[in-house]
Write a structure and sequence with these properties.
The complex is a heterodimer of chains A (676) and B (296). Chain A is of the alpha/beta class and 676 residues long. Chain A is built from 14 helices and 33 strands. Helices cover 24% and strands 30% of the residues of chain A. Chain B is an alpha/beta fold. Classes of the chains: A alpha/beta (676), B alpha/beta (296). At the A-B interface, β2, α2 and α3 of A face β9, β10 and α8 of B.
């Protein structure tokens, strides 16, 4: 992009710059050689007459040449650098529509609105033939961007109107890549990317070396910094209920709040369940800290239960919402294969009320021989067998059940003196039941095993202090099984083995006070029920994302998919899953494939958007890209800048001033020569 | 009547104009030979010595008409009590003397005419004169003569003199002063393109050697006023050096510098009781001799 001339005809006069040289040569030729008697007096007057005069003559020659050049160039009205010269231009307007742009800027207006208005004004200021395109840092499905640069300003303005605040964190690098790709494919002689962004650090602090700007492309950044921006409380994430939820039973989730302020913040957490149950919790979040707030959902019916979480008070509006999804199950059977009295207090532990209304578990005693039919009809959460009845169970069916994701619990029958040869796939072999001379304390051998999930504390430890074993059959782990609980001497009495998608928990003690005091321990209910309930039953049905992220990959990404919103911003998108846009706003969304709902997505706002760290335009992603920074407060400034760039800077006054300076210098040197 | 020979630098019309001219000395000269000039040595004044043949330029009143009546010969009487003036002519014939600007002749030609005229006047008075050419060193010279016939070799020699080489007048004056020769009047004809202080030292050397001196400063009018216009490449004739000057811008300073040099020379000469006369080549030779030799 070089200098252009508004009056190029004057450039015809450029050869006039050679006149001083020609005159110099002419006079040099015409210089009269005069034989003279002596140079004595000449050299007395000016000892270095020849050399100094030559230097001054050369200086004068240069000055006069430059003077003529400057005058001619000034008359030609140089302009630098017009964006497109006499041709058309292509510009990509890149708008940061991330949640942080909801903060207010000049005049108390949201930054996103300032950016949109400026972009609209810029598009309206485009000349005929100019092309433009939009790019967003958050690919919002509700905005129709088009494929490339277009001359259809009406479509561009319509797209600008569609831009609404998001609750997502933007991908600035992706947006820049898209902008550069559009311009790389443009045939316009001049191209430019105009960025309207608050340059929030979390989004723009990327590696610029991954971006390559098309040759000749200009990059202009209009930083829009919020006025008086202070950190606030935002939703960082939501932890779903641990384990399986049962319809009718409370499902406990946790919302993690983050406070970006330097002082304590007070906020209210509102939970609105789809059925209309609302709860509000007032919390105080420490300065620059996090706080976990428990939320209790009450799924009434089996299936999907969703809720929205909203913050009030000292919260950042752009990151104050989240969609929460929970999958609840109906009361599920637990099949007890064996004699009714062989399981001790286990049925009571599984369903204290006898019906399963409390635990969601309905224990049912079945004959081991009829287990095949029972498995087909009841889809049990867990199958419980005694070491004795295990041999009577149809092994292939039971193994298939476990491999398919079921849980198998094996324990001694109350009256058994077991010493059986268990099938190898079980992973444990029991010894003969022995009554200990005196009760021996139980010891957790591996607290990381799944059976302890509901009993682990925050440090990952499981406390079974007070557990005493009076009677047991010591187990020998096999085939990859691990000992979960043992006697203090290290002998295993509870072994867990993962088989396929399910697991097998082998016990050497019966669930009866005659064997141990385990049934008398309150946590034993959590242990027993957790064995049944702790299955990833909602896998594949639910997804929890942060705004700005897309659907996780699926086996068939090309499948026609429809995404609709249950709560949050309206969204109804259809297309191949691989092309699904990121979720721009918090809420709950359903994903359907060929009319079937296959996934429910709970989207949480991007809590990082509440941060108030901003780059200065010369760092982060932009550090390696040549660009200019033009701060603006309203659309008029953008238009003026665009016209200035489009028109180019008029260099006439500068050339004229320079010519005057050279003229003055020439006069001074000339006078010095004459005086000498 | 003897045949009259024509010389380039002593044409008849010049000789005619010089006929009434005499060169005398205002100060007593240490002369070994008697002539018409006053001498510090008192001898047999107004005593007849001999005759010599009349030579063109000799005053007619000195012809002994009685002898003419007897012998039909023009003889001039000579007297022993008159001290003869011995004049040494030093003529600069360096390359710079060949310069000819606004004058009708070159400086060397004009200087040669001056020398011839002076020799003629002196010979006509019966004074002895010798001639030495010089450039950067003293030339061999011609033997002294006090008759018109005796001047012939010198007059012919002047015609053969060519301008060549660089000049070093001061050094020549030192050399001349160091040489054993009769003391007398030294007439230096040159353009004196040398530092005035150095020339003054040479002149002082001459003075201390017992000579009186006259400087005839021959310059072309162009050397005084730079009659050129515009940018001129000035080539020094003696060395070939060149400078380019805008004459119009340079003339004033040049003229001032030349005048300063002349003034310095004049002051140096007068300070040593020597004569100095600026001779422009455009001025008549007889007038220059009359003015220049007035000092003596």
């Amino acid at each position: 992009m070089g200098v252009i001339f508004a009056a190029p005809l004057f450039l015809i006069g450029l050869p006039a710059a050679a006149l001083p040289v020609l005159f110099h040569l002419f006079f040099k030729v015409r210089k009269k050689p005069v034989p003279f008697s002596s140079l004595m007096f000449f050299l007395r007057i000016e000892p270095n007459l020849h050399a100094r005069r030559k230097v001054r003559e050369l200086l004068l020659l240069i000055l006069r040449t430059v003077l003529i050049l400057l005058v001619v160039l000034a008359l030609a009205r140089p302009q630098l650098p017009a964006l497109a010269g006499s041709g058309s231009s292509a510009v990509v307007v890149l708008i940061d529509n991330s949640a942080s742009m909801t903060r207010t800027g000049a005049g108390g207006r949201p930054l996103l609105r300032i950016a949109s208005e400026a972009a609209a004004a810029l598009i309206e200021a485009l000349a005929t033939g100019d092309r433009a395109a939009l790019a967003l840092t958050v690919a919002d499905a509700s905005v129709t961007l088009g494929e490339g640069a277009t001359t259809d300003t009406a479509a561009l303005l319509a797209a600008l109107d569609q831009i609404q605040p998001t609750e997502a964190s933007g991908d600035a690098a992706a947006a820049l890549r898209r902008a550069f790709a559009i311009l790389a494919g443009s045939s316009a002689p001049a191209t430019e990317v105009r960025i309207f962004s608050d340059l929030q650090t979390s989004e723009w602090n990327g590696a610029a070396e991954t971006l390559t700007m098309p040759a000749g492309c200009r990059l202009t950044v209009h930083p829009l910094h919020p006025e008086g921006a202070a950190g606030a409380v935002a939703i960082s994430r939501i932890d779903p209920p641990a384990g399986r939820s049962i319809a009718g039973r409370p499902a406990r989730s946790t919302v993690i709040l983050i406070n970006h302020r330097d002082q304590v913040a007070t906020t209210q957490v509102h939970l609105s369940q789809d059925g209309g149950d609302d709860t509000t919790v007032a919390v105080t979040v420490p300065a620059n800290g996090e706080m976990a707030v428990p939320l209790v959902l009450k799924p009434r019916d089996p299936g999907l239960t969703w809720a929205t979480v909203r913050l009030d008070g000292d919260s950042f509006a752009g990151a104050s919402r989240a969609g929460l999804v929970v999958w609840s199950n109906a009361r599920a059977p637990v099949l007890l294969a064996g004699a009714p009295g062989a399981f001790g207090l286990l049925p009571l532990a599984l369903a204290p009320d006898g019906r399963g209304d409390v635990s969601g578990l309905a224990p049912t005693v079945v004959a081991p021989e009829g287990l095949v039919a029972s498995l087909g009809m009841n889809a049990p959460l867990m199958v419980v067998a005694t070491w004795t009845s295990l041999a009577q169970c149809p092994q292939p069916a039971l193994q298939a059940y476990v491999t398919g994701g079921g849980t198998l619990l094996i324990l001694p029958a109350l009256d058994a003196a077991i010493e059986v040869a268990a099938p190898p796939w079980i992973g444990a072999t029991p010894a003969a039941v022995a009554t200990l001379a005196k009760p021996i304390a139980g010891l957790v051998l591996d607290a990381s095993l799944t059976c302890w999930s509901d009993l682990r504390d925050g440090a990952g430890q499981v406390d079974v202090n007070g557990l005493l074993i009076a009677r047991c059959a010591v187990l020998t782990p096999q085939g990859g099984a691990k000992a979960a609980l043992g006697l203090v001497d290290g002998r295993a009495i509870l072994v867990e083995k993962t088989l396929g998608a399910g697991r097998i928990v082998s016990s050497g003690i019966a669930f009866h006070p005659g064997w141990s005091n385990l049934p008398l321990k309150g946590w034993s209910l959590a242990l027993v029920q957790g064995l049944a309930l702790h299955q990833v039953v909602d896998a594949g049905r639910l997804s929890r994302l942060t705004a700005g992220h897309s659907l996780p990959p699926a086996a068939s990404d090309a499948t026609a998919t429809r995404i609709r919103s249950l709560s949050g911003g309206p969204l109804d998108w259809q297309g191949p899953r691989e092309a699904a846009p990121p979720f721009a706003r918090a809420g709950v969304y359903t994903v359907e494939v060929t009319g079937q709902q296959v996934l429910t997505v709970g989207v949480c706002a991007a809590g990082s958007e509440a941060a108030t760290d901003y780059l200065d335009g010369n760092t982060g992603l932009l550090a390696g890209l040549p660009h200019r920074t033009v701060p603006i407060t309203d659309a008029r400034q953008v238009v003026e800048d665009w016209r200035s760039v489009r028109r180019g800077s008029d260099l006439f006054p500068w050339f004229l001033l320079l010519a005057l300076a050279v003229w003055a210098l020439e006069g001074w040197v000339g006078t010095a020569v004459r005086k000498s | 009547m003897p045949a009259v020979t024509t010389y380039k630098f002593l044409p008849p019309h010049l000789a005619d104009r010089l006929d009434g001219l005499g060169i005398g000395v205002r100060h007593p000269l240490p002369g070994g030979m008697q002539g018409q000039h006053r001498s510090r040595h008192h001898g047999s004044s107004v005593e007849f010595a001999d005759y010599r043949a009349y030579a063109a330029g000799d005053p007619i009143h000195r012809i002994d008409w009685s002898v003419y009546a007897r012998s039909d010969k023009y003889l001039v009487r000579r007297f022993e009590d008159e001290v003869r003036l011995r004049v040494h002519l030093l003529l600069d014939h360096s390359e710079s003397m060949s310069f000819r600007g606004e004058g009708a002749v070159s400086k060397l030609d004009h200087a040669s005419s001056l020398a011839a005229g002076i020799m003629y006047v002196l010979a006509r008075q019966g004074d002895a004169v010798d001639l030495h050419g010089f450039t950067d060193r003293l030339g061999q010279g011609w033997p002294s003569a006090s008759t018109y016939d005796g001047l012939r070799p010198m007059l012919r020699g002047l015609e053969k003199l060519t301008a060549t080489g660089a000049s070093a007048t001061a050094a020549v004056l030192h050399t001349f002063a160091d040489q054993p020769r009769p003391r007398g009047l030294v007439v230096v004809i040159s353009d004196f393109f040398q530092d005035a202080a150095e020339l003054a030292q040479g002149l002082s050397h001459l003075h201390h050697a017992g000579h009186q001196a006259i400087l005839l400063h021959v310059l072309d009018r162009a050397e005084l006023h730079l009659p050129f216009d515009g940018v001129v490449e000035v080539n020094e004739m003696e060395t070939g050096r060149k400078v380019v000057v805008e004459v119009d811008e340079f003339r004033e300073a040049y003229t001032r510098e030349v005048q300063r040099h002349i003034d310095q020379l004049r002051r140096a000469a007068h300070g040593l009781n020597c004569g100095y006369h600026l001779v422009e080549t455009s001025s008549p030779v007889d007038q220059a001799i009359r003015d220049g030799m007035r000092w003596v």
